[in-house]
Amino acid sequence: MIEKNLFESNRAAWNQAAVYHQRAFNRSLHIGFQDPKFSTLKKERNYVVNERLKQIDFSGKTISHIPCNNGRELLSLMRLGAKEGVGFDISDAAISEAEELAEIAKANVRFVRTNALEIDETYNSYFDFIYISQGSLQWFPNLNDYFSVISRLLKKDGKIIIFEIHPFKYFFENGFSFQAQNFEQLTSYFKTSPNNYPKGLDYFGNVEYESNECFWFMHKMSEVIAAILHNGIEIEDFDEYPFDLDGTPNKEVEGKFPFSYLITAKKK
After folding, report:
1. Model-level pTM?
2. Which residue segment(s) compose the domain that 19 sits in?
3. Strands of the sheet with 84-89, listed across from one edge
4. For 192-240, what is each residue's pLDDT tens digit?
5. Strand partners for 160
6. Number of domains the chain is built from
7. Second label for 225, Cα 20 to 30 Å away, from 32, 112, 190, 268?
8. What does each C-alpha distance from 245 to 21, 44, 95, 233 come to in angstroms?
């Protein structure tokens, strides 16, 4: 599939999914961000990333979240004392909701609808900190392209935190069942061609619907690390965790496999 068409197909799918996500949240974010102390980073599973965030002085800093979805995490990060925030996402609907939430939160944040690989050069060497959260890297066919953008947007010594789904979790994304032991459904760790989500992207309400085509990619852990290092970014810390960021495939395997990881890094 031609890459431009792939991204446009994913854009349409995310616009479609936004309706279901908003129903699942039931305006809880619109209500929550009226409270200056509200943050979506206070969930139990976020304790590891919160420990790392405490080690960063955000005062006077300019930060970003790429991709940012509906802005909830960037707006939460702004409450750590940052001066300015900019979020980038491919979904028109997600950006529209992010702008609503930013107005409610009274945050100095703007949101830009764009493919992350096409972020304007206006933002070169613009950010002190960039956050990359769960379910971000799978949407990019080539991680070197993605991290080359991240590198050019960061100031010298700018920091990155990546709190992501472990590649191991993606083994189970194509219908594998532990009970059925249908091993032919396991996603290959070494697969380079696109995978498809045929039943929609409503991972909040778990509603299945007839979805526009959307495509994601398996990336080995070595690919993630190599793409970071090859773009002038220095890894400071890397850890893997047994907890799942969006629902363990089976309780019997909980705590036995790496389902998430956290990387802290800075631009050299």
Report:
1. 0.93
2. 3-267
3. 109-113, 84-89, 62-65, 127-132, 154-165, 260-267, 233-241
4. 999 988 777 766 767 777 788 889 999 999 999 999 999 999 999 999 9
5. 130, 265
6. 1
7. 112
8. 17, 10, 23, 25
